[in-house]
Amino acid sequence: MLKVRDLNVYYGGIHAIRGIDIDVNKGEIVTIIGSNGAGKSSMLNAISGIVKYQGQIEYEGKALPQVAHKVVQSGICQVPEGRVIFANLTVHENLKMGAYLRNDTKAINEDFGKVYDLFPRLKEREKQIAGTLSGGEQQMLAMGRGLMSSPELILLDEPSLGLAPLLINTIFEIIKEIKSMGKTILLVEQNAFKALSVADEAYVLEQGVITAKGKAADLIKDPKIQEAYLGKK
Fold first, then answer.
1. DSSP strand E in the chain: where?
2. Range(s) of the domain holding residue 56
3. Within a 10 A sphere around the Cβ of 111, how many other Cβ atoms?
4. Dihedral sign, Cα of residue 118, residue 123, residue 126, residue 131
5. With DSSP H G I counted as helix, E B as strand and the rest as coil, what are the percentages for the chain, rounded to 5?
6. Is residue 127 part of a domain?
7. Which residue, 82, 186, 230, 232, shows the most beta carbons closer than 10 Å to its own?
8. If you compute the radius of gyration of the chain from its CA atoms, what whole number of angstroms results?
9. What CATH number does residue 30 fall under?
């Protein structure tokens, strides 16, 4: 579904992503784990057309345009790190913004129902100003807004960042539910244990380079991964 080959990202003289290759197959959760500053968000931003890159990114067999709104129109959405909601708009208005590039009114209304089924708390607060939501609710809103673009591939950037442990469990249960809806997910996450627990495939990114890859169920048992990312010795 998504094929990344020899991806390089530069910020001036800084070589943030160094020739990485990644494959994401339809219907899977693929996770990228790594420490802060490893280049995980830069990789997602390149796929989303937010930052310029060198290399090849193909989606459904075609070269992906390096223009953000065209990437969304192709069927890819990114839920950014830090949630980045429209704080002065209501919950419902935020979700509506997710469907900004769509004109299929009937399907949009159906997707509102699906999002509210997936996030009942958002339905309870649909008229509430988004900036007054809790951190966990804002994360749910950001994910719901992404789903309103009707994507086939969802890029999740640090969805558990800053959340309490109980809410982290809830978010990862929702990620599994989104997969069961037929969506494909590329998940960037510092919580390596949670990420590897829900993913099918996994990559380890260190200083812009892929240092390990394989089945998530295998990597979670790897002693080196356990020591570096899971706090086990």
1. 2-11, 14-24, 29-33, 54-59, 62-63, 76-79, 153-157, 184-189, 201-206, 209-215
2. 1-67+189-233
3. 20
4. negative
5. 40, 25, 35
6. no
7. 186
8. 17
9. 3.40.50.300
In a domain, 23, yes or no: yes
Q: Which residue has the tokens 């469990």?
A: 169
Structure tokens at 26: 């339809």
Please state, in angstroms and rounded to a whole number, the distance separating the CA atoms of residues 88 and 80: 18
Q: Which long-range contacts (CB under 8 A, 24 or more apart) does 137-142 make?
A: 138/83, 138/85, 139/83, 139/163, 139/167, 139/171, 140/171, 140/174, 141/83, 141/85, 141/91, 141/94, 141/95, 142/79, 142/80, 142/83, 142/84, 142/85
Q: Using one digit for the tens of pLDDT, what is the confidence trace for 9-44?
A: 999 999 999 999 999 999 999 999 998 888 999 999
- The candidate with the shortest Cα–Cα distance to 152, out of 126, 186, 120, is 186
Tallying the residues shown for the chain, one arrives at 233
User: Does a structural domain hold residue 97?
Assistant: no
Contact 170, 117 (CB under 8 A): no
Q: Which residues pair with 63 in a beta bridge?
A: 58
Residue 233 has pLDDT above 60, yes or no: no
pLDDT in tens, 201-231: 999 999 999 999 999 999 999 999 999 888 7
Instruction: Tell me how far the alpha carbon of residue 89 is from its chain's centroid.
Output: 23
Q: Please indicate, yes or no, if residue 232 is contained in any of the structural domains.
A: yes
DSSP alpha helices (H): ranges in 53-156?
68-74, 91-98, 105-118, 120-124, 135-147
Average pLDDT over residues 103-130: 95
- Which residue type sits at 17? I
